[in-house]
Specification:
Layout: H1 9-18, H2 32-45, H3 50-77, H4 83-114, H5 117-123, E1 127-134, E2 139-140, E3 145-146, E4 149-150, E5 154-166, E6 172-183, E7 208-216, E8 227-232, E9 239-241, H6 245-260, H7 266-277, H8 285-293, H9 297-300, H10 304-315, H11 329-332, H12 337-355, H13 359-376, H14 383-397, H15 405-430, H16 435-459, E10 461-463, H17 466-490, H18 495-521, E11 526-528, H19 532-553, H20 557-572, H21 575-582, E12 591-593, E13 602-605, E14 611-614, H22 620-630, E15 634-635, E16 638-640, H23 645-648, H24 651-655, E17 659-660, E18 663-665, H25 672-685, E19 689-691, E20 697-700, E21 703-709, E22 727-732, E23 735-739, H26 745-752, H27 757-760, E24 765-767, H28 778-784, E25 788-791, H29 804-812, E26 816-819, H30 820-823, E27 826-831, E28 834-842
Parallel strand pairs: 6-8, 14-16, 15-17, 16-18, 18-19, 23-24, 24-25, 25-26
Antiparallel strand pairs: 1-5, 1-7, 2-5, 3-4, 5-6, 7-8, 7-9, 10-11, 12-13, 12-27, 13-14, 20-21, 21-22, 22-23, 27-28
Helix pairs in contact: 2-4, 2-14, 3-4, 4-14, 6-17, 6-18, 7-17, 7-18, 8-18, 10-12, 10-13, 12-13, 13-14, 13-15, 14-15, 15-16, 16-17, 16-19, 17-18
Length: about 850
């Protein structure tokens, strides 16, 4: 067989050379010091006294001038200055000039916040009529528990005040950034659609409004707002100027994408607009938590990954950035380099407008634009100078980015991909790891190594599933993004086509959501870590030590496999292994008081894998974790003693992934909004809701209980939700437990005189009413005479629970007192003496 020879050997040689990476030597880091210096200067000067910025600008400019002039005199006098000295002089002078520019820009932006009529009026809490221009998309506040109620829904709008007028005074022109807090009047914040129909949410950036509002100072510290405007939004916004044409177009595109995804499954419907344009309005708190637990929030914040995917379609894969060949759509369509750069610039501008100028979007667009400029001039520069240039330009344009954690994380992640990831990938390939797997592992590991300390500052937690979850999600990110942008573009002209494309994009989007939910559901998904920069420094040191050890482990595959197995066991935490190591849960537990903060949640053992839940706490996550740690997968009954949020807001955590037989509630449905929220959650899960009253007796396995309060026909002492709490006498494992909900003294006295009183004497365990508040009836405490008193309360709560007097009274009556704020979750188990003893285990 004869070998074939190419028709044009020179062309073949040229193609062969073109496929090889260019040898560019060490990375060009000359722009890094000016960028970092400008970043640090801006961060300091934003809240420094005004004179500091002026002094810094003058001093930096003079120092640069002196440096350059000294260099000039040396050149003329001696002509023996080395090239290294000239380069150093230029570099230092450039850094000083960047410091001066950053100080000037930060000083001007800081003055907008500190000076002018808006901060003055805010300090007086004045009532004003203001003309404002919307600068960002409105967003809803997340549902949260405030005391025993859910906080009402508000719409948050970032804006700039252009004109402000106080009653009886002349209008004054100004330009001050403010935050509008709009009360929508919606008092059912737990409803899935709460506040979402408000016309305030449909406002587009650049819209001008006239609002009557109360001014208040913004928070001290790093906030970029001159004041907060509190607006009564029940009458709707009064627009005095419509949005700009680009914003109207962007609004139509975003609305079209939401419409195209309307019929997708819940997770895909919520996630796809977030992946494509950063629209997270449909993302539920539960899904948002899953993304935070797995460090996948960068997929919801439109970032460089999204822009890179778009540029890859135009220019070719990012892996060819250092090669002479191109494989994108542009060369295939015969578009020249400069035309490609212009087209990329238009794409960058459209990307920023549609996705909104968030820190990660601006960084991605700026970095891509610098790379496109290099492409247009035919000079292929390193990507590190491009990133440094993007940071420098953005910090000068908007100094507030220097204090943005999102911007910091975005830059760190990109820097990791440009510097550490290629080296780690090469090291993994040298040890026999396939190239594609090596690149994916290196990228995820490098980004996690640099970003994890900053994430720890924000969340005081370190995710152990971040790298595997990011690897699993990465495969679906590109198709979801590309198909999502196609649906975005098709929606205004052909909605059926957009819906078909969105349906296709829903599959990879749903996969990403499943990865996040599965990872977050792992018992060891994350570990608590000290917050603040001290914790970040400690985590950085641990990361460096782990990397040094990891380099040595790569030479020993068996040790690598052993470490991977250990990490898997730490994440999965098989229940038998955890029980052996920690002793939790104790083998024969009868009741567990979960540590859910300032609220109540109890679990009564009802057989293998089953438990009756009494109250659900203020948040779904703690009660879900508690039930998972106990291995409870079946809940015959959930008893909600009353409808205060600190007892019912966590109900979705109980219903999550468990077989629930029913929900029993008190007959007084107050507060009405929270009672309605319970019924909605039950209906969505297909769980029946019934009322319970005194005299009702039930059994589940060897667990039995009797409801002793409230009376079925009502009682004169029941004047509010607390006094309507369901109280239960529980018998289990030879123990008698009295659970009092949040009963107040009038209802407690009535209970001590009721027909059930004879059964309440001498109980083994008392769940102290109302988190151990000072309002207790001595007669009921004397009657119950518990050997063990348990109090569920939150650490450092603002109510002073438990009251020291209540604790002293219980101890004086011979009870051992334990509380969740100090002792954590508490498990009651029968003592070695059977009916004569009761023991408790702490988690």
């Amino acid at each position: 067989m004869s070998a074939r020879t190419p028709a044009d050997p020179e062309a073949s040689a040229e193609r062969a050379d073109a496929s090889r990476p260019r040898q560019e030597g060490p990375a060009d880091l000359r722009l890094v010091p000016p960028a970092l210096a400008a970043w640090a200067t801006a961060a300091v000067m934003l809240h420094a006294p005004p004179g500091w910025a002026v002094t810094t600008v003058v001093a930096s400019v003079l120092a640069a001038a002196v440096l350059l002039s000294t260099r000039g005199r040396l050149l003329l006098a001696r002509r023996r200055v080395t090239r290294r000295a000239r380069v150093t002089a230029h570099a230092v002078a450039a850094t000083l000039l960047c410091v001066a520019a950053a100080a000037g820009s930060a000083g001007l932006h800081g003055a907008d916040v500190r000076s002018g009529p808006v901060p003055e009026l805010a300090r007086e809490y004045a009532r004003v009529l203001a003309e404002v221009e919307v600068t960002a998309d409105p967003r809803l506040t997340r549902p949260r528990v405030s005391g025993n109620r859910m906080a009402p829904v508000s719409v948050l709008i970032e804006a700039e005040v252009r004109r402000v007028e106080r009653t009886g005074a002349a209008a004054r022109k100004t330009r001050a950034p403010v935050l509008l807090i709009v009360d929508t009047g919606d008092r059912q914040p737990a409803a899935p659609a709460a506040g979402r129909g408000s016309p305030w949410l449909s406002l587009l950036p650049s819209t001008r409004l006239r609002v009557e509002a109360g001014l208040a100072p913004a928070r001290e510290g790093g906030d970029r707002f001159a004041a907060v405007l509190r607006v009564d939004g029940r009458e709707g916004p009064r627009a005095v100027g419509g949005p700009s044409a680009p914003q109207r177009l962007a609004g139509r595109l975003r609305a079209g994408l939401r419409e195209a995804t309307e019929d997708l499954p819940e997770d895909a419907r919520a996630l796809l607009p977030g992946l494509v344009v950063g629209d997270t309005s449909r993302v539920t708190p539960e899904l948002d938590r899953a993304f935070r637990e797995t460090d996948l929030t960068h997929t919801l914040a439109v970032s460089g990954a999204n822009f890179t995917i778009l540029l890859a379609l135009l220019l070719g894969p990012p892996g060819l950035a250092q090669r002479a060949e191109r494989r994108g759509l542009a060369p295939r369509l015969g578009i020249s380099l400069r035309a490609t750069a212009v087209l990329g610039g238009v794409l960058s501008l459209a990307f920023v407008v549609v996705c909104r100028p968030d820190p990660s979007v601006l960084r991605a667009a700026a970095c891509g634009s610098v790379a496109l400029l290099a492409l247009a001039t035919g000079r292929r520069r390193s990507l590190v100078p491009a990133l440094a240039t993007a940071v420098l330009l953005l910090v000068l344009y908007d100094p507030w980015l220097s204090r943005s954690y999102g911007f910091l994380l975005s830059v760190l992640a990109t820097g990791a991909l440009l510097t550490l990831a290629p080296r780690w990938s090469e090291a993994l390939r040298r040890h026999g790891v396939p190239p594609r797997i090596a690149e994916a592992l290196a990228a995820a590991g490098a980004a996690q190594a640099l970003c994890a300390p900053v994430v720890a500052v924000l969340s005081a937690r370190v995710s152990l599933v971040a790298i595997p979850c990011n690897l699993l999600a990465e495969a679906a990110l590109a198709p979801a993004t590309v198909l999502g942008f196609l649906a975005l573009a098709a929606a205004p002209v052909a909605m059926p086509s957009a819906e078909a494309v969105a349906w296709c994009a829903g599959w990879p989007a749903g996969w990403i959501a499943r990865v996040a939910r599965t990872g977050a559901a792992m018992p060891g998904a994350g570990v608590d870590w000290p917050g603040g920069w001290t914790g970040a420094a400690a985590l950085g040191a641990v990361t460096v030590a782990a990397l040094l050890v990891g380099r040595r482990l790569l030479r020993h595959p068996w040790w690598c496999a052993a470490c991977a197995l250990l990490l898997a066991l730490l994440v999965v935490q098989p229940r038998p292994l955890v029980r052996t190591i920690t002793g939790w849960p104790p083998p024969d537990w009868r009741m567990v008081m979960c540590d859910v903060g300032q609220g109540d949640a109890l679990v009564l053992a009802a057989g293998d894998g089953a438990g009756v839940v009494v109250d659900a706490g203020p948040d779904p996550e703690p009660v879900d974790r508690c039930l998972s740690s106990l291995g409870v997968t079946r809940v015959p009954l959930v008893v909600l003693t009353h409808f205060h949020a600190d007892h019912v807001a966590g109900l979705s955590g109980v219903l999550r992934g468990r077989e629930v037989g029913g929900i029993g509630t008190t007959g007084l449905e107050e507060p009405a909004d929270q009672a309605a929220a319970v019924r909605r959650a039950a209906a969505a899960a297909g769980v029946p809701v019934t009322r319970v009253g005194a005299g009702e007796r039930r059994r589940a396995g060897d667990l039995s209980w009797e409801v002793v309060w409230p009376p079925p026909g009502g009682h004169p002492t029941v004047e509010g939700p607390n006094d309507a709490s369901v109280a239960m006498l529980v018998r289990t494992g030879g123990l008698r437990l009295l659970l009092l909900g949040d009963l107040e003294p009038p209802a407690q006295r009535a209970l001590a005189r009721s027909p059930a009183a004879r059964d309440l004497a001498g109980v083994d365990v008392l769940k102290v009413a109302h988190h151990g508040s000072a309002y207790q009836d001595p007669g009921l405490l004397d009657l119950a005479a518990p050997r063990l008193a348990l109090i569920s309360t939150g650490e450092d709560n603002s109510y002073g629970h438990p009251a020291p007097g209540t604790v002293e009274v219980l101890r004086a009556r011979g009870a051992a007192v334990l509380r969740t704020d100090r002792d954590g979750a508490l498990a009651v188990v029968p003592g070695t003496g059977g009916d004569e003893e009761v023991a408790v285990a702490r988690h």
